[in-house]
Amino acid sequence: MQVLQRNYLPQHLEPLLLDCRIDACIAVQARADEAETDFLLQVAGNHDWIAGVVGWVDLRADDVVRRMERWAGFPKLRGYRHLLQDEADVRSVVRDPRFKRGVAQLQAAGKIYDVLVLGHQLDSAVELCAAHDRHALVLDHLGKPAIHANDLSLWQQTMQPLRSMSHVYCKLSGFVTEAVGPDRRYSVDVIKRYLDAALEIFGAGRLMFGSDWPVCLLAAPSYTAVYEIVAQWASRLSPSEQQDVFGGTAQRCYGFAA
Which residues contact 73 (CB under 8 A, 6 or more apart)? Predict the structure, then answer.
């Protein structure tokens, strides 16, 4: 994890976006702390090309509505994420009345909830998505399937209920860290099989590119390398579908003007 033990700031990201012809991005929390939300909003406020922020708030807090109101004056705050992948018992969290109330309240406020789970927790993520359909949800990192095992069947089977949940979107992100094997290599061809499966389940109109930068650097040589995997895969799609994957879906989902 040494590659992550340094600061990654806007001045490091902006040239990478320009190289990939990306106009704007969304900053997503990585730490379960309201100070993280404050920091990301401050950074976004200083850079027009950081179009939005997905922050963190304690969704199980009794005063979660009051806590969210503290950011009412920050239009770039588009949603929240809780690190479900770090929970010992994700199913109990998803079924916790306090958590369910928190998700319902953020949806009532028109905020996105980003769903972050590990592959073996995906069934709980599907349960969460089925229970909360009042506003858009975003499944991060394809649900983190074990791509390195090159076994689509269980992941596809678990993901199938999401096909009919039109409020659920999916980020094409985080795949390189799930694809590396013991030799620290990954197969682009295998990754593309999972992207194909995601397209079949969601359609291009519910898929969006995500870099997972800088975490992607644990497995990939660069931001551009991750971008190129999706760009090459998407090259066979229609121009409108490519536009969805690389901007249109995110604009609709997170509520940005076209």
Answer: none
